[in-house]
Predict the 3D structure of the following.
Amino acid sequence: MLVLGFDYGTQKIGYAIGNSLTQSAQPLGALKARDGVPNWDQVATLVNEWKPEIVVVGNPLNMDGSVSELSKRAQKFANRIHGRLGLKVELVDERLTSSEAKSYAKERGHRGDFESNPIDADAAALIVESYFSTL
């Protein structure tokens, strides 16, 4: 099963593809967003290219598990993917995903300049792999 994952953000939305057979994911890139709204044609192109069976969207809950404002927006993004593209979409708890992605990036030689070298796609890959761990 192919899974397309998104790390939702208001300026960038990272995306990755994963395969349930290998239980692994590959970071692909990031879409620009304007106040959390992507170019929906680009999202449709990704879906048409990869033909995932499911889409997972990171749910940025607060550390205590409560719903954050960004979490509400990620839910809205997920609902729009389902409504516009007719795909099954699930939210995945993404607490600490960004810090984990930063740690992995630094291990691979990233210099820590995350503004100029973002890790949104890496975070999306971790979200997909987290989804696999729940199967």
Q: What stands out?
A: The radius of gyration is 14 Å. The helical segments are 40-50, 69-85, 97-107, 120-132.
